[in-house]
Here is the input.
Amino acid sequence: MSKILIVDDSNMLRDMVKYALNEGGYLDVSEAVDGVDGLAKAKATQFDLIVSDINMPNMNGFELITELRKLPVYAKTPILTLTTEKTDDMKAKGKEVGATGWIVKPFVPEQLLKAVGIVLSR
Here is the structure.
C-alpha cells in the first residue's frame, strides 16, 4: 500500500484531498500543516508520494521540494504540487526544483486520482 503525505496549510483542503485519496483506495495518508512540518514528517517516515501546496507559511512548497530532493530517499519520489498558482513561470520553477506534476486548485478528485495513479505506477 502506498504511503502518501499531504502538505497544505489549509485544514479544509487537506481534508478534501485525504477524502478523495481514501475514496480512490489510498488509505495510508498523513498530513502536514506547512513545509517545515512536511519535511520533519518526511524525514521520520518514508512516503511513496508527496502532494504539496506552494504558498504556505514557514516553508513554502518550492523550499520543501528543494529540501526533499537533497535527501537520497526522496531523490526520485513523486512530488505533486496542488496549488492556486497557474502561470507558466511558476510551473517552470516547480519543474526546476523537482516537482513531478502540477495540479491547479480547485481540483477535481478524478483528476487528482488519475495523476496519483500515473506517478505511483512508474
Summary: Strands lie at 3-7, 28-32, 49-52, 79-83, 101-104. The chain has one domain: 3-120.
